[in-house]
Amino acid sequence: MTTIENESLRITINPVGAELTSLFNKATGREYLWQADAAYWPKHSPVLFPIIGTLKDNHYYFEEKEYQLSRHGFAREKTFTVTMKSATTVAFELTDDAATRAVYPFQFTLSLQYTLEENRLSVAYHVTNNGNAAMYFSVGGHPAFKMPIEEGLAYEDYYLLFNNIETTGRWPINAVGLLEKNPVPLLNNTQLLPLTKELFYKDAIVIKHPASNEVQLKSDRHPAGLSFSFEGFPFLGIWAAKDADFLCIEPWCGVADSVNSQPLLAQKEGIETLAPGDEFVRTWRVATF
Fold first, then answer.
1. Could you tell me if residue 99 is left (phi over 0), alpha (psi between -120 and 50 degrees) or otherwise beta?
2. Fewest beta carbons less than 10 Å away: which of 26, 67, 69, 263?
């Protein structure tokens, strides 16, 4: 485990998956991250790469060859190497190997950089194409925040406040993890999403191209909460395991296959394309209060 801290925050990261395992506010004494109760969900904040969600039949084709790849890809199970560490910043790196190339035929470097600035944590994903041809990938986050944040409150005392007015549906997820063809109603000319555990009884809320790039997790019964920004991520997932006391806010560059998807990686919805030698960077940030 690797720990960094400043006057406001202390975080811990597991090199397996470069996974954030603790986000602790030193001033208030609050742990903001879900502590991975295996009875519900044994993760904290997995890194999603090189796909988001589920592939149709768990496979895809690239250059006429078939590859098998499980939900959310392999990065969350791989051990990363620490490449830089200071008092308030740490970077982890993963590069391709024979095992990754067997399921994902690209030469890459994936780096995660965690940086503390006052009461804010920034998490930056750096993807570099080390090959000689275009690289296709998705990348995203899956942080789970403890709910309720304040002891004594209920899950239903909280809501998400978007920074822009939203009129959008949610794309339902079927029993095998694929998106349905059409959305169902979710938000209509509002910035407010009241939270209930029942919202997630049929899997995650998937929002495509939200108008917002920031949400606040708040309660009117107590001032403790958080602000989560995700500029540059075109998809947003919101999820909790059934009846679990957490909320995942998931910024995605990519999305699960739909029921009518074709299994061609280069044509996958939301896929990112990176030229040889180029680097792709996206950053989400969370501020606790």
1. alpha
2. 26
